[in-house]
């Protein structure tokens, strides 16, 4: 049901069954909660539950899915052979900050990144654009860009941009971290060494400076006095 996906996306992935049901009824759609629950389960979407990690991957059920060209083999013999893309998040006093990154599998270096207060397609797209610019990629048929099956990564805009660079898009299975394990492994040190160790953060600007310019931010500047 496209309307359920639309309502869930408009809530930034936070609405669960109860709130989606209410939103549908406000729009004049009379539907039972149990039916909404079944449809959301079928679509692979869910709301945020207190105490759980915030979900950054929402599958795009109607979008064409690129093949998995990696098959959990993250080895590379040269730079710009395999890029791994991912999304993570930072909680601040004024709301969530989402971070998209592109990791080069050969050098284990982040070659593109971007932060925003939303998870729309433009976020990972900007990270991709930075990676293409920094690595001077224009036409490189040997480059594979691998990600999970999030709706941002299988969007037309994102896949078309990869094709324009003559690279190949690769997507793992839905909600399976092992299919993008190398990118997922970056989230652990990121959260432990920066987010948990140096936070909490005041707002988007404070978190962005700490993430991308760590030498300019004291580990204690975000803490309450």
Automatic annotation (TrEMBL):
<dbReference type="InterPro" id="IPR036397">
    <property type="entry name" value="RNaseH_sf"/>
</dbReference>
<dbReference type="Pfam" id="PF13276">
    <property type="entry name" value="HTH_21"/>
</dbReference>
<comment type="function">
    <text>Involved in the transposition of the insertion sequence.</text>
</comment>
<dbReference type="Pfam" id="PF00665">
    <property type="entry name" value="rve"/>
</dbReference>
<dbReference type="InterPro" id="IPR025948">
    <property type="entry name" value="HTH-like_dom"/>
</dbReference>
<protein>
    <recommendedName>
        <fullName>Integrase catalytic domain-containing protein</fullName>
    </recommendedName>
</protein>
<dbReference type="InterPro" id="IPR012337">
    <property type="entry name" value="RNaseH-like_sf"/>
</dbReference>
<dbReference type="GO" id="GO:0003676">
    <property type="term" value="F:nucleic acid binding"/>
</dbReference>
<feature type="domain" description="Integrase catalytic">
    <location>
        <begin position="75"/>
        <end position="194"/>
    </location>
</feature>
<dbReference type="InterPro" id="IPR050900">
    <property type="entry name" value="Transposase_IS3/IS150/IS904"/>
</dbReference>
<dbReference type="InterPro" id="IPR001584">
    <property type="entry name" value="Integrase_cat-core"/>
</dbReference>
<dbReference type="GO" id="GO:0015074">
    <property type="term" value="P:DNA integration"/>
</dbReference>
<dbReference type="InterPro" id="IPR048020">
    <property type="entry name" value="Transpos_IS3"/>
</dbReference>
């Amino acid at each position: 049901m496209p309307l359920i996906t639309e309502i869930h996306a408009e809530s930034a992935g936070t609405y669960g069954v109860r709130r989606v049901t209410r939103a549908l009824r406000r729009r004049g759609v009379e539907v039972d909660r149990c039916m909404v629950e079944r449809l959301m389960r079928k679509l692979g979407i869910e709301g945020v539950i207190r105490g759980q990690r915030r979900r950054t991957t929402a599958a795009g059920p109607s979008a064409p899915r690129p093949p998995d060209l990696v098959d959990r083999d993250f080895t590379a013999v040269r730079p710009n052979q395999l890029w791994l893309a991912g999304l993570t998040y930072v909680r601040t006093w004024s709301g969530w900050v989402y971070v998209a990154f592109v990791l080069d599998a050969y050098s284990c270096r982040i070659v593109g990144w971007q932060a925003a207060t939303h998870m729309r397609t433009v976020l990972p797209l900007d990270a991709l654009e930075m990676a293409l610019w920094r690595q001077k990629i224009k036409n490189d048929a040997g480059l594979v860009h691998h990600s999970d099956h999030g709706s941002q990564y299988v969007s037309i805009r994102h896949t078309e941009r990869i094709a324009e660079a003559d690279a190949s898009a690769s997507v793992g299975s839905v909600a399976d971290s092992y299919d993008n394990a190398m990118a997922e492994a970056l989230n652990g040190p990121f959260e432990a060494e920066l987010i948990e160790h140096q936070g909490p953060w005041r707002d988007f600007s404070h978190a962005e400076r700490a993430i991308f310019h760590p030498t300019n931010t004291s580990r204690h500047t975000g803490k309450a006095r």
